[in-house]
């Protein structure tokens, strides 16, 4: 299968470049994305006329290597895309995947193939500009912004008026999603904002006069990446090998924000907390990565979930046996714990209507900086314990009393 994909990729590359003038100059550039001081994706791109070839590796959260070939239409819109994806941590029959997308003015047709079979999808664009979306692949963001700004220029839209887009997805975890909505808002001073159905928050881009993406910030989103355009092409192959080696260190797959579980038995109650563990990565946390006066998911990815087997109180809030989610509300001078009766949702899907209650927590300083967000249950006696949340320099605690 792998050999067949490589041969097909060579044939496709030849077909893509056949229509370009031999005198058409090639542009070589790249992108690097970082979370704090950690690199999470790198990309090497060659563009010549209406064709683009990219080699990229990312860890979001699994390591994936991608080879992508794109033919563009008028206005920089995608007309044909082939992406070969290798995910070393996937089962063998899913490790190599080929995605082919054909885009017309009114439809998108996608096939996704691996050794387990082929999945076919078709969507009507209903007049929207359809662009491919991979959260950590910034040549696609580059094309996304350029196509939106070209449309705004063609329509002579005023600065600040959003351009409505449609986006289709590549990776396996998005297979169940349809064609989604996106919106790019051009701003003065070479800036633009992006919102779309997958992204929680607003991404901010720096754009040059040729509509090229020079930088991107996710500081106002839940994926707080900082992206830089590179004039020197990175060694994607070597970086990908390093990513893969780190992922499988000690024979265990290590994702970026691990899911973890803490359990304790206090008296007749068993308490289990399931949560995501983001890394500090040298970043300023409170007031920055965790904004003040905004509800925080208290971890990463899916909502932090707590299961209790018997009635108890946490921070004075009474819980009967069952499953809940935990959220927090940080302030410059304190923090509150929120217990919510909804569970099983993603961490951006907080609904205040399901709140069981809110209560202040004790705020202290961690004994030493905590790199990986940690929730623990500190033992007391047969009826008492404490819930502790630690990350970076802060430590929040709430008393647990078994009823």
Write up what this structure looks like.
This protein has 403 residues and is mainly β. Helices cover 11% and strands 50% of the residues. The chain is built from 3 helices and 25 strands. Strands 8-7-6-5-4-3-2-1-15-14-13-12-11-10-9 form a 15-stranded mixed sheet, with helices on both faces. It has a 6-stranded antiparallel sheet with strand order 16-17-18-21-22-23, with no helix packed on it. It has a 4-stranded antiparallel sheet with strand order 20-19-25-24, with no helix packed on it. The longest helix has 17 residues. The protein is elongated, with a radius of gyration of 24 Å. The termini are far apart. The N terminus is likely disordered.
Task: Summarize the model shown.
With 403 residues, this protein is mainly beta.
Q: Which strand order do you get reading across the main beta sheet?
A: 8-7-6-5-4-3-2-1-15-14-13-12-11-10-9
**How would you characterize the largest beta sheet?**
15 strands, mixed
Number of strands: 25
Helix content: 10-25%
**How many angstroms does the end-to-end distance come to?**
60 Å
Tell me, rounded to a whole number, the average pLDDT: 89
Low-pLDDT stretches? 1-22
Structural class: mainly beta
Q: Tell me the β content.
A: over 45%
């Amino acid at each position: 299968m792998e050999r067949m994909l490589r041969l097909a990729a060579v044939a496709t590359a030849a077909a893509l470049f056949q229509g370009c003038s031999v005198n058409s100059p090639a542009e070589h550039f790249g992108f690097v994305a970082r979370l704090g001081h950690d690199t999470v994706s790198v990309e090497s791109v060659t563009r010549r006329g209406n064709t683009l070839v990219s080699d990229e590796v990312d860890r979001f959260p699994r390591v994936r290597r991608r080879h992508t070939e794109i033919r563009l239409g008028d206005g920089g819109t995608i007309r044909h895309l082939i992406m070969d994806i290798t995910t070393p941590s996937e089962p063998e029959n899913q490790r190599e995947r080929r995605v082919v997308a054909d885009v017309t003015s009114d439809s998108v047709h996608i096939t996704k193939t691996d050794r387990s079979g082929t999945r076919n999808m078709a969507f009507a664009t209903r007049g929207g500009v359809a662009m491919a979306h991979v959260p950590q692949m910034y040549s696609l963001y580059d094309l996304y912004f350029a196509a939106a700004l070209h449309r705004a220029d063609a329509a002579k839209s005023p600065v600040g008026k959003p351009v409505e887009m449609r986006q289709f997805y590549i990776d396996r975890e998005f297979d169940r999603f349809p064609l989604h909505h996106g919106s790019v808002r051009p701003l003065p001073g070479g800036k633009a904002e992006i919102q779309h159905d997958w992204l929680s928050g607003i991404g901010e881009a720096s754009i040059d006069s040729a509509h090229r993406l020079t930088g991107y910030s996710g500081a106002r989103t839940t994926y707080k990446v900082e992206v830089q355009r590179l004039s020197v092409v990175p060694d994607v192959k070597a970086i990908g090998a390093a990513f893969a080696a780190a992922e499988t260190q000690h024979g265990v797959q290590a994702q970026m924000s691990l899911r973890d579980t803490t359990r304790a038995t206090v008296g007749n109650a068993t308490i289990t907390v399931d949560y995501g563990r983001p890394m500090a990565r040298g970043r300023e946390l409170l007031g920055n990565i965790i904004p003040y006066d905004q509800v925080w998911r208290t971890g990463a990815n899916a909502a932090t979930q707590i299961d209790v087997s018997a009635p108890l109180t946490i921070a004075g809030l009474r819980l009967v046996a069952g499953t809940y989610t935990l959220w927090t509300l940080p302030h410059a001078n304190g923090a509150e714990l929120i217990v919510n009766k909804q569970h099983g949702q993603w961490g951006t899907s907080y609904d205040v209507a399901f709140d069981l209650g809110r209560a202040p927590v004790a705020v202290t300083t961690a004994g030493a900086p905590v790199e990986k967000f940690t929730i623990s249950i500190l033992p007391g006696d047969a009826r008492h314990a404490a819930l502790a949340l630690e990350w970076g320099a802060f430590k929040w605690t709430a008393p647990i009393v078994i009823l």
